[in-house]
Amino acid sequence: MNAKLYDTRLDLSAEIREKVVQILNLTLATTLDLKTQTKQAHWNVKGNDFFQLHELFDEMAGELEEYVDMVAERVTALAGVALGTARVASQTSLLPEYPLEITAGLDHVSALADRYATYAAHVREAISKTDDLGDADTADLYTEISRTIDKRLWFLEAHLH
Ligand SMILES: [Fe+2]
User: Fold this and answer.
1) CATH homologous superfamily of domain 15-158?
2) Most buried of 131, 137, 141, 144 (most Cβ within 10 A)?
């Protein structure tokens, strides 16, 4: 999915900006999807660990909401068009749909761990891609996201051992 670039006084070439914007819009769609899936877990988890997981998932969704905004605004800073509706997210996201029937804490933890792992790999790949393209600022944004997501994957996996 692609949209036009606007003119800008920014010193990154249109060719570079176009490539970076494409990567960022894929991240935007996937982050939105992961955020709503994490909320789905926050609302529907049941069992002994209910309260702890309910709170943890909400904290994680809150971080993702911040990244949605940061990624979308990096797109517009590069004079691109942020593609951030729910319909675009569902068509473009790298994630499979969340299992809607699960309830147990460990089932939610495991479903989220799978999705966080996919997202973590995408974000890490985006660090080097945007760095190679010469956009150190976007690479830095991805590095910040990557550090948090790796930590969250650790938190999730720590429940599964
Ligand atoms: Fe809530």
Assistant:
1) Ferritin, core subunit, four-helix bundle (1.20.1260.10)
2) 141
Q: What is the pLDDT of residues 11-36, one digit of tens each?
A: 999 999 999 999 999 999 999 999 99
Rg (CA), the chain: 17
* pLDDT over threshold 70, residue 102: yes
What is the 145 CA–ligand 1 centroid distance (Å)?
23
Ligand 1 midpoint to CA 107 (Å)? 19
Cα of 104 vs centre of ligand 1, distance in Å, is: 18
Tokens 């593609």 — which residue? 83
Domain extents in the chain? 15-158
Distance 159 CA to ligand 1 centre (A): 21
Instruction: State the pLDDT at residue 142.
Output: 98
Position 117, amino acid: A
Cα–Cα distance measured from residue 57 to residue 33, given in angstroms and rounded to the nearest whole number: 14
Give residue 58 CA to ligand 1 midpoint distance, Å.
Answer: 6
Report how far ligand 1's centroid is from the alpha carbon of 54 (Å): 8
